[in-house]
Design a protein that fits this description.
The protein has 360 residues and is of the alpha/beta class. The protein has 10 helices and 19 strands. Strands 3, 12, 13, 14, 15, 16, 17, 18 and 19 form a 9-stranded mixed β-sheet that branches. It has an 8-stranded parallel β-sheet with strand order 4-11-10-9-8-7-6-5, with helices on one face. It comes from Williamsia maris.
């Protein structure tokens, strides 16, 4: 079998990360939050990569947020010792055993959003229930998971009654992924967390943790209410963040490198498709990815291994290698085994996407 690498030049399509831009993005958020009183707990589901997690912790992050027990296990193995699974888990006996084992080697924080969920968690954790911290999730407007902020107190009270150690509240302002709504969403997040904090205080919980913040909304996070922010996409950025005005083209550190394999007037085809770019396309994004060197071109169609691009300007030559920012970088990362790392325009390393597929 022939290795996909020839010298320092990988075969396309592949996912590249510009380490210089990546480090600048991590440093920018650290500088933004410095002195605010808000801790940074980045979401690891975006990068799933030990090397990036370590860079974030070195820049001041207090730990990592993850989406699943599997991601928590992967990052714990890589040395991250403070983890929050920001998902209202419904625990089976096996998941409870995995969490008990995790709690023995890392500080662990879990989420509940219902009385029944708290009861299930306490039962599954058994004697380890006091070894973890618990946050009550509230809905700040996305209408996915999370209880109404006014009900946070009753959920917290039930969690306390079954022996869980409740330390605060959290939310995810995911509805900030709409053009022109980032600041408004951050205000809604603040109001929801403030209401929820009052509700849990009324049942005897000191809400020392009030956690929120997404990449689109983090610059508007209310440090008077929030104690912690959990952005995920910011080390990479993507086409969505550019469309939202959260990032510029030069702030995108992760890109799919693809070759022009067909061309004709006004149209060309790249050798990257849905199996590396993903298929997500919000109505407010112009195509299935952003060509960083041809921002006026549009990726109008994807098949599994082809991306069809239209342009009113010069069509690139056959064999040209172009940079494509995916719409949703989290999806692209989960579609590849590793990230090709560049610095100063040269390939310098290859980082494993070690939590890829850790969905349970």
């Amino acid at each position: 079998m022939t290795d996909a690498f020839s010298g320092d030049t990988p075969d396309t399509p592949y996912v590249a990360v510009d380490a210089d831009v990546l480090d600048a993005n991590i440093a920018a958020l650290a500088a933004q939050t410095a002195g605010s009183g808000m801790a940074v707990r980045p979401h690891g589901k975006t990068h799933k990569c030990a090397q990036i997690a370590r860079r974030q912790v070195a820049a001041g992050a207090v730990g990592l947020t993850v989406a699943t027990i599997g991601e928590a296990e992967a990052f714990a193995r890589s040395g991250i010792d403070d983890l929050f699974i920001a998902y209202p888990l419904w625990l089976t006996e096996n998941k409870g055993a995995r969490l008990r084992e995790l709690s023995e080697r890392t500080a662990l924080r879990l989420a509940v959003d219902s009385a029944a969920g708290a009861e299930s968690m306490a039962h599954a954790l058994g004697d380890a229930r006091d070894a973890v911290e618990v946050l009550v999730e509230v809905d700040s407007g996305q209408h996915r998971t999370g209880c109404d902020p006014t009900r946070a107190g009753s959920v917290a009270a039930r969690a306390l009654s079954v022996g869980l150690r409740v330390v605060g509240v959290f939310t995810f302002p995911g509805h900030g992924y709409r053009p022109g709504h980032r600041e408004e969403t951050a205000h809604q997040e603040s109001a929801a967390l403030s209401t929820a904090a009052d509700a849990v205080t009324s049942v005897g919980v000191d809400p020392v943790v009030r956690s929120g913040g997404s990449t689109p909304t983090v610059e508007f996070a209310d440090a008077g209410v929030l104690t912690e922010v959990r952005p995920g996409v910011y080390p990479f950025n993507d086409a969505q963040q550019v469309a939202l005005g959260r990032a510029g083209i030069t702030d995108v550190s992760l890109m799919v490198m693809a070759t022009v394999v067909h061309r004709e007037p006004g149209r060309f085809v790249l050798d990257c498709g849905s199996k590396i770019l993903g298929t997500e396309r919000p109505e407010w994004v112009s195509g299935f990815g952003l060509l960083l060197d041809h921002p006026d071109a549009r990726v109008v169609a994807l098949s599994e291994h082809h991306a069809t691009v239209v342009t009113d300007t010069v069509v690139p030559e056959l064999g040209s290698v172009l940079r494509v920012a995916p719409n949703h970088v989290c999806i692209t990362v989960n579609l590849v085994d590793d990230l090709v790392v560049t610095a100063g325009g040269a390939v310098v390393d290859r980082w494993s996407v070690m939590a890829r597929g850790a969905n349970t």
